[in-house]
Amino acid sequence: MPEAQKLEHLKKLAALMRYYILAMTTQAGSGHPTSSLSATELMAGLMFGGIFRFDLDNPEHPNNDRLIFSKGHATPLFYTLWAMAGKLTAAELMTYRHFGSPLEGHPTMSFPYTEAATGSLGQGLSIGLGIALNGKYLDKLPYTTYVLLGDSEMAEGSQWETLQLAAHYKLDNLVGVLDVNRLGQRGETQYGWDLLAYEERIAAFGWETIIVNDGHSFPEIIAAYQKVMTVADKPIMIIAKTVKGKGVSFLEDQNGWHGKTLSPAELERALPELGPVDQSVRGVVSRPEDLKPVEVAPQAAGKLVYQPGAAVATRKAYGNALKRLYPQFPHLVSLDAEVSNSTYAEIFGDAYPQKFFEMYIAEQNMVGAGLGLATRGKIPFVSTFAAFFSRAFDQIRMSQYSEPNLKFCGSHAGVSIGEDGPSQMGLEDLAMFRAILDSVVLYPADAVSTERLVEAALKHRGMVYIRTSRLATPIIYSIEEEFPLGGCKVVRQSDNDLATVIGAGVTLFEALAAYEELQQEGINIRVIDLYSVKPVDAATVLAAAKATQGLITVEDHYPAGGIGEAVMAALAPNPVRLYSLAVTKKPKTGKPAELLDYEDISRSAIVRLVKQIKQG
Amino acid sequence: MPEAQKLEHLKKLAALMRYYILAMTTQAGSGHPTSSLSATELMAGLMFGGIFRFDLDNPEHPNNDRLIFSKGHATPLFYTLWAMAGKLTAAELMTYRHFGSPLEGHPTMSFPYTEAATGSLGQGLSIGLGIALNGKYLDKLPYTTYVLLGDSEMAEGSQWETLQLAAHYKLDNLVGVLDVNRLGQRGETQYGWDLLAYEERIAAFGWETIIVNDGHSFPEIIAAYQKVMTVADKPIMIIAKTVKGKGVSFLEDQNGWHGKTLSPAELERALPELGPVDQSVRGVVSRPEDLKPVEVAPQAAGKLVYQPGAAVATRKAYGNALKRLYPQFPHLVSLDAEVSNSTYAEIFGDAYPQKFFEMYIAEQNMVGAGLGLATRGKIPFVSTFAAFFSRAFDQIRMSQYSEPNLKFCGSHAGVSIGEDGPSQMGLEDLAMFRAILDSVVLYPADAVSTERLVEAALKHRGMVYIRTSRLATPIIYSIEEEFPLGGCKVVRQSDNDLATVIGAGVTLFEALAAYEELQQEGINIRVIDLYSVKPVDAATVLAAAKATQGLITVEDHYPAGGIGEAVMAALAPNPVRLYSLAVTKKPKTGKPAELLDYEDISRSAIVRLVKQIKQG
Asked: Which residues 6+ apart lie within 8 Å of A480 measured at CB?
């Protein structure tokens, strides 16, 4: 197509896109038309200007370029783009935001061209980083990842984590498209239309920057994308000045129109301003080269070898397990936030450096990147201190809506870490990961169960959290023992158990010590290792509740959302007598045993409570 | 003191400080000596070089300069500083990290010179921003806030949120001291000793930067601090090249020594390297001007006026309440993350613009700043969408260890927000805020209870979360009604209630609708408004459980950590029959009523369950 004709075609596409953006939001009665209108040319130029390469009939093609709307509220534009590509009809667009429609308010996986669910701002770029890491270092394919960014969301620190790390990894296959429309939800952004303010900051972070002074001019936009192709060893940010509400006089650059739709009467006023609209125009998306990654055939995992009774920290077993299991699961990758010598991800990293990514102390970007890698078929294990996953809770929360195969390992759980004090203690991580709808939450007590649970996590498609402990704990299970998800182990029982003590991780050993002590006094207790905190093995626990005078949960975690509540919830509506021992005083610095005692989650607290129950 | 003598004195102080740093960590057997040694001169120069102004006998003096160790692991240095100021004895230093000692592993409030608990990296600067906002815009006092930063923690996005906003607010009373010792926990940082990499980035963010090429040279350090005083309208970052482990040959710039202490034998080798150590040397801290803020006398709050039965969203009542109550609580300030027209914090902001801070879309910094303001006696109300507090969970978690008087309001709770879809729905916020040890969690259903609960939050010293809803709900309470924390309202009851339905927020109205429907069929239910989710009014709920065949909790929240579990936990160990209705399917886009139905938390789900219970 000659240049002039091509530009004419793009303009016709943009006009129809604006028509749909306005019409679909008016019919829905909600949505963000003005945020979509500002980026219409930026996206039309990308998709239909010969830049973006995508096999429309095979969204999973490994060499497709990828497009993520980090400004997820611009779904009217997002869906319209794919309609212009021929993948949605006008009638389908008009189901936008209806219950049951795949065209949800923000991008979700119900729409097949969504790479990852977005809508919480400042996350798309980190997901793109993961996809770009995959392209450059794992699959080694020449696809490019584009991320549409809003200017408001540049206030989010997560963006700057990604900007730092993308430059560190020289991701010249990652392109940000910054839609500087000046206006946020309630007024002007910090920098308004000062493109240079963005350029200065982003360039300082090691990115190539390309300014587009008129973000509605196709020649400028196409030239910018073409320049992108020439950049080596640096990620690229296109910084474009745009007008919010572009195309409709009474919307253009007006405050107060964010997230507002036109009434039918306003729509009638607006549409003629778009000029003649050709309902039949469609765009053509270039196809990618048909390249595929070299796949490594799975091999047998290494043998599990531990001496019974030896003391091995579960965090160390975690690192051992990743290394041992990698041959069987060659899509496994490990990401760690500059603490791999504490989480022991370094055991894997030392063995398979090309499959380990140092993410530095930037947990939000790490989780986003993990999600990005997962979208490309990898099985990322993301690790840091349990406490510091709280830094990325929004990213973890959002991940679930992308339905990823993504694993988390949090080390240094609970007060039993000792002297470092409360800032380093994971005491709300179980609450956090249990709150993810379809998550699995695992909490092994010894090295053997850790290894088996890492294996189970690898075999389970979904989000799994593994909680590990700092202290070395004795190996109590034989290497033949199996640990299905949703199971538990009854490790002590008799026909006349007074109460059932449910421990997990370090508290299992407190329960076992209490068992010994109570035995001396002729009192039997049942002891359960609740290694699967979610789902809970309700049947086994309920049977124990019925066979004994009460359940005692003992956890190195705050009470809310922890093991006690997990057990109660799993057994409901069955009425059971449950006593919860948990961390209920503000933790201090001290030796692990001192702190377990202080918090009344040690063997002596268990013994006291059992005797109290005995006395009735 | 003549200059040369002053330098000699500082050097003697530094030598003794190194002695203590090494000795106290060796006796403790844990801690971070090398991270302390790198910043010894930077901190000694600040405190004892005539820069820092602090009334040692009155840490609460409103015009004291403030010092925050964002690299909280450098406590050996932190405590040693105050020992050099005469506020700790050598013997007290030797209790470092012992159980019960105020000298905890990371700074906590058990030590009286801690401004705010730190230890999760990348938070101190945001706390400092809050303190600086207070100095410049509220108390209008000339104190300066200094924050010691590690180089590793500059990878955290939260830092860049603060850097952006501090420049926006022209905080020339905020000074960062960046200790570039090159080494993180497991190896080199992203930029190593490249001071210019930091300078370029930080200057691009609008800060004045001052390079210190030798961070162990007192003349250079003092000159840098003196230059700080001359900067106007910009925050200042001192970027200093230092050596990790400085002063001990076998520690200096060596990887593998992070968070490691010397054995007694190693200590014996190290100490002579410090040269002669004068145990008697002490530093002098300058005193601040004795200035105090102008205090505004509290006046009567405005009158509470709502029409019974009128529909008002609780989020709107929140804004009304802040505005109405401000005269009575003149320390009230409001911070919002660029969504004040949704949370309705704008009602307050429009009325009292000087007490409202726009924090843009940067929730981590917003919470840190709120904490900083709270340390200076303000009562910050921090607001955004409930979902987006997950972005700042680490800051919220850490806040509790500073024991602040800090309030949070999360709007747009649950699936009942409707079409925007799951990314915007707060569905884990109750779990998150319940997990904070001493938090109060409130969830009003109507405008009157919202106003009363904001008032109760203002009167309660501590961390309070208020959950508000997007939709307008009818006013059901008279303006005389009282809503004590830890209470609940039995809004429907009879002598023959089949079951008790516990609702809160929007689900209370579903319960009331179910009540009407069941009444038509001759079935009575008890209905409780659990406006206080934490603490739960256990006595009232237990009585209802005993009086009826079962409790039904209905919540617009995921099950884990939510209202169902809160009620179970509050009643334990009493066995009760509890049925939990909560959001258990991945939410979609749709109308609020459609989504409540889809998730089985609507009136019809309640009616079905009650009938099921009736059938037994």
From this structure: none
ipTM over 0.95: yes
Per-residue pLDDT tens for B321-370?
Answer: 999 999 999 999 999 999 999 999 999 999 999 999 999 999 999 999 99
The catalytic position among A41, A208, A220, A363 is A363
Interchain contact A576–B (C-beta under 8 A): yes
DSSP category for residue A308: T
What is the distance between the terminal CA atoms of chain B, rounded to a whole angstrom?
88
Question: What is the C-alpha separation between B250 and A187, in angstroms, rounded?
Answer: 56
**Cis peptide leading into residue A76 (ω within 30°):** no
CB-count exposure of residue B584 (10 Å: 0-12, 13-18, 19+): middle
Per-residue b or e along A463-499, where b marks 16 or more CB atoms closer than 10 Å to that residue's CB: bbbbbbbbbebebbbeeeeebebebbbbbbeeeebbb
The average pLDDT across A568-591 equals 97
3-state helix vs strand vs coil in chain A, percent to 5? 40, 15, 45
Question: Mean pLDDT throughout A108-126?
Answer: 98
CB count within 10 Å of CB A442 equals: 27
Instruction: Count the alpha carbons within 13 Å of B325 in the hemisphere toward its beta carbon.
Output: 23
Nearest by CB to residue A186, choosing from B117, B339, B564, is B339
| Residue B328 CB neighbour total at 10 angstroms | 15
CB B82 within 8 A of CB B311: no
A270 backbone dihedrals φ, ψ, rounded to 5°: -75, -45
pLDDT at A616: 84
Residue corresponding to tokens 């509605």: A216
d(CA B170, CA A351): 49
User: Of A304, A346, A347, which is closest to residue A328 (Cα–Cα)?
Assistant: A304
Alpha carbon separation from B498 to A22, B183, B378, B518, B529 (Å, rounded): 51, 66, 48, 10, 17
Are residues A391 and B387, on separate chains, in Cβ contact within 8 Å?
no
Task: Indicate the average pLDDT of chain B.
Answer: 97
* Distant-in-sequence contacts of B86-89, Cβ < 8 A, 24+ apart: B86/B56, B86/B282, B87/B56, B87/B113
**Burial level of A383, CB count in 10 A (0-12/13-18/19+)?**
buried
- Nearest Cα to A65, choosing from A115, A112, A17? A115
Cβ pair A424:B119 closer than 8 A: yes
Q: Is A499 on the interface with B (CB under 8 A)?
A: no
Among B72, B203, B561, select the one facing A434 at the smallest CB separation: B561
Cβ partners under 8 Å of residue B465, min gap 6: B407, B408, B409, B410, B429, B433, B439, B440, B441, B442
Q: Where are the alpha helices (DSSP H) in B461-537?
A: 506-520
Instruction: Judge contact between B178 and B206, C-beta under 8 A.
Output: no
Q: Does B160 touch chain A (CB under 8 A)?
A: yes
pLDDT score of B142: 98
B97 has a chain A CB within 8 A of its CB: yes
Q: Which residues contact A472 (CB under 8 A, 6 or more apart)?
A: A311, A312, A313, A316
Q: Which of B472, B468, B449 is nearest to B311 (CA)?
A: B472
Q: Give residues with Cβ within 8 angstroms of B5, minimum separation 6.
A: none
Q: pLDDT tens-digit profile of B185-233?
A: 999 999 999 999 999 999 999 999 999 999 999 999 999 999 999 999 9
Cβ distance A411 to A379 under 8 Å? Answer: no
Are the beta carbons of A305 and A448 closer than 8 angstroms? no
Residue partners of A8: CB distance under 8 A and separation at least 6: none
Tokens coding A285? 């998306």
Provide the phi-psi class of A183: left if phi over 0, else alpha when psi is between -120 and 50, else beta: beta
- For B99, which of A104, A558, A588 is closest by C-beta distance? A588
Interface probe for B, chosen from A428, A471, A552 (most Cβ of B below 10 Å), is: A428
Nearest residue in chain A measured CA to CA from B396: A390
